[in-house]
């Protein structure tokens, strides 16, 4: 952090006096103007580096002590100072040691605890933001239901004595127009964020008082800066941070032992001060390899990418603060709330899928028999979606802890998947286990339960290179310790590895990807293949209707896409049945207000580029004709 050291002196005098401001935090006043500071009963107007500062009440010596503690240092200033005169800072030095120490605390703890275990337990925060980005819509017809779907259940929105989501849904039900107006203003970037936080908090308090008066209850609003910052950081993750008072104050006290942000100051000001420290930490972590690696795991498979590392910054502060609090086992202070409807069976799956029951039963039976399954089909047939539902059904519940999903690509290697040497920050190399090795370790410790390893785009990787000697162990009758073998990097023959009997493989394969070679025969005979096709059936139509799509548009989609698929299937020279257009392209994840506009957007933004690629070399005019038919 920048350390600003300052000395003042009386005009016409050689007596130097120390300015009572903590140098580590002077920068936090960048939004303050005409700051009044009392020093030895002499009021001084301060204008640092000719910047203007917004006045935040009257700040005297005691107030400065309350906010910033007693520590400060000295640097020479080139002008005398009396009332109204300006100070010019002539030296700014850097002291990064405490930031670096805090980051080291975080990384050491992750290494001790286990990186993959930590990611598994904390990834839900990134999934929360991902879901919020997809489903939060203040123009939704039903505000309460929108809030319910946009705010995933977790300790972010509900703990034993903290229920902000429930209260926000209550407000949305009882005072929908007012609640919508408050949320719109909170998220209005044209207004100052400090003002917005304070204003919304005050208005929500009025709302809960009104409700309590009308219903003779004693509810709290729970609309504190913590929950408000969650809404801001989920809506604008590139700009804001999610903050929690206790954890963040521990972080700040570590950086600056004499300073803690008082709980008594207004919520908006409190957030601004926390935000400043987050920004300083963020500057350091986003350039670190180890932090980047953790982030990549956190966002794997999500649309939300945390480009500016704001949610990773929150993770660093949260874990670092737990270590400083002496919590030996991470993530135990506020356990994540599990989904209320944890049970999941075939009926639940069939409600969400467009497969016929007979087909679904066939897939389940094949996986139970072979333990290795690949779902193959044209783009948009829901292969990855179905893979997850199959795992849920066989587990009997939605248990993400027993499911691992990855995606293969051309650069994926044995070292990523099984085991290999990786460079360290010290310029050395150390042997590290890959994601599948760690998953097997986890499954071995819980032999009474099944585990599911899902490989998306399995044919994109060099399979012999990725699996190596483990190709043998994939076979269902080669599982267990009796078939354990040494690995490529085993230090001795006694150091062996095996795939436990309770692991099931589910792969997905896009049959339209012409750039891929045939799947390795050795792997092909170890898997059963199930072909999926586009499903524009009654279940598909019911789904679209539930999302606000009119019968007219549904009919257009079904008739035109089925006609297009016939054209694609007949073009055996360039394409064929493996290139048909799947139903998933036309499955919205939120209510559609203008279905005609939505349909045209899907055609222009997704189907158009796909058809142009299909007929790029063969018949571009054909692509143009088919696109025109879809847009008529």
Write a concise synopsis of the structure shown.
This protein has 632 residues and is α/β, with parallel strands linked by helices. The protein has helices at residues 61-68, 97-113, 115-122, 124-135, 143-150, 164-174, 176-186, 193-215, 225-235, 245-255, 267-285, 289-299, 310-324, 346-352, 357-370, 383-395, 414-417, 435-444, 463-467, 471-474, 521-524, 538-546, 551-570, 595-614, 620-631; strands at 2-4, 7-9, 16-18, 35-39, 42-46, 92-94, 372-377, 403-407, 419-423, 429-433, 451-456, 485-486, 496-497, 503-510, 528-531. The protein folds into four domains: 2-94, no CATH class; 100-324, no CATH class; 346-531, Rossmann fold; 538-631, no CATH class.
Query: Structural class from helices and strands?
Result: alpha/beta
Q: Whole-number radius of gyration?
A: 30 Å
Total helices: the number is 25
Mean pLDDT: 78
Distance between the termini: 60 Å
User: Quick one: biggest sheet?
Assistant: 5 strands, parallel
Describe the structure.
The structure is a single chain. This protein has 632 residues and is of the alpha/beta class. The protein has four domains: 2-94, no CATH class; 100-324, no CATH class; 346-531, P-loop containing nucleotide triphosphate hydrolases (Rossmann fold, 3-Layer(aba) Sandwich), CATH 3.40.50; 538-631, no CATH class. It contains 25 helices and 15 strands. It has helices spanning 61-68, 97-113, 115-122, 124-135, 143-150, 164-174, 176-186, 193-215, 225-235, 245-255, 267-285, 289-299, 310-324, 346-352, 357-370, 383-395, 414-417, 435-444, 463-467, 471-474, 521-524, 538-546, 551-570, 595-614, 620-631, and strands spanning 2-4, 7-9, 16-18, 35-39, 42-46, 92-94, 372-377, 403-407, 419-423, 429-433, 451-456, 485-486, 496-497, 503-510, 528-531. The strands form six sheets. A five-stranded parallel β-sheet has the order 8-11-14-7-15. Helix 4 (124-135) runs antiparallel to helix 5 (143-150) and helix 7 runs antiparallel to helix 8. It is globular and about 70 Å long. The termini are far apart. 33% of the residues are buried.
């Amino acid at each position: 952090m920048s350390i600003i050291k300052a000395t003042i002196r009386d005009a016409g005098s050689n007596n130097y006096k120390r300015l009572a401001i903590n140098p580590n935090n002077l920068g936090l006043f960048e939004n303050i103007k005409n700051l009044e500071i009392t020093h030895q009963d002499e009021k001084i107007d301060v204008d640092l580096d000719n910047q203007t500062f917004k006045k935040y009440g009257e700040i005297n010596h005691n107030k400065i002590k309350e906010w910033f503690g007693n520590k400060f240092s000295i640097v020479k200033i080139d002008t005398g100072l009396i009332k109204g005169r300006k100070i010019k800072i002539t030296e700014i030095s850097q002291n990064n040691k405490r930031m670096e120490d805090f980051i080291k605390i975080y990384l050491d703890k992750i290494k001790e605890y286990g990186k993959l275990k930590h990611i598994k337990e904390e990834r839900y925060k990134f999934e929360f933001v991902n879901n919020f980005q997809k489903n939060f819509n203040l123009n939704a017809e039903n505000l309460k239901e929108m809030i319910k779907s946009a705010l995933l259940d977790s300790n972010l929105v509900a703990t034993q004595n903290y229920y902000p989501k429930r209260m926000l849904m209550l407000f949305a039900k009882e005072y929908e127009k007012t609640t919508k107006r408050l949320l719109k203003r909170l998220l209005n970037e044209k207004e100052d964020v400090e003002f917005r936080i304070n204003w919304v908090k005050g208005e929500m308090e009025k709302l809960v008082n009104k409700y309590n008066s009308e219903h003779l209850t004693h509810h709290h609003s729970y609309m504190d800066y913590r929950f408000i910052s969650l809404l801001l950081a989920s809506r604008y993750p590139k700009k804001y941070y999610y903050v929690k008072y206790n954890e963040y104050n521990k972080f700040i006290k570590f950086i600056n032992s004499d300073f803690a942000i008082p709980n008594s100051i207004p919520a908006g000001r409190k957030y601004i001060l926390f935000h400043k420290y987050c920004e300083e930490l963020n500057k350091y972590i986003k350039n670190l390899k180890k932090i980047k690696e953790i982030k990549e795991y956190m966002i794997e498979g999500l649309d939300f990418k945390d480009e500016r590392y704001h949610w990773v910054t929150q993770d660093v502060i949260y874990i670092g603060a737990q270590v400083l609090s002496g919590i030996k086992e991470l993530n135990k202070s506020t356990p994540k709330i599990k989904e209320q409807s944890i049970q999941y069976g075939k009926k639940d799956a069939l409600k969400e899928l467009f497969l016929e029951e007979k087909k679904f039963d066939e897939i389940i039976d094949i996986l139970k028999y072979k333990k290795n399954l690949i779902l193959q089909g044209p783009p948009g047939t829901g292969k990855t979606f179905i893979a997850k539902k199959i795992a849920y059904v066989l587990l009997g519940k939605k248990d993400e802890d027993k499911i691992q999903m990855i995606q293969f690509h051309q650069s994926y290697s044995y070292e990523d998947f099984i085991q290999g040497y990786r460079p360290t920050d010290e310029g050395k190399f150390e042997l590290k286990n890959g994601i599948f090795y760690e998953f097997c370790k986890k499954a071995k410790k819980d032999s009474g339960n099944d585990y599911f390893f899902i490989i998306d785009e399995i044919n994109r990787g060099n399979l012999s290179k990725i699996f190596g000697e483990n190709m043998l162990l994939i076979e269902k009758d080669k599982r267990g310790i009796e078939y354990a073998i040494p690995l490529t990097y085993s230090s001795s023959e006694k150091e062996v590895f095996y795939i436990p009997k309770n692991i099931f493989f589910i792969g997905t394969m896009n049959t339209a990807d012409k750039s891929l070679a045939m799947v390795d025969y050795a792997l092909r005979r170890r898997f059963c293949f199930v072909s999926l096709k586009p499903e524009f059936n009654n279940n598909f139509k019911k789904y679209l209707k539930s999302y606000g799509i009119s019968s007219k548009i549904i009919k257009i989609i079904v008739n035109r896409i089925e006609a297009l698929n016939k054209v694609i299937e007949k073009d055996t020279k360039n394409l064929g049945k493996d290139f048909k257009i799947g139903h998933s392209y036309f499955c919205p994840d939120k209510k559609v207000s203008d279905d005609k506009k939505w349909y045209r957007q899907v055609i222009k933004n997704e189907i158009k580029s796909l058809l142009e690629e299909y007929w790029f070399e063969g018949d571009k005019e054909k692509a143009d004709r088919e696109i025109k038919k879809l847009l008529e």
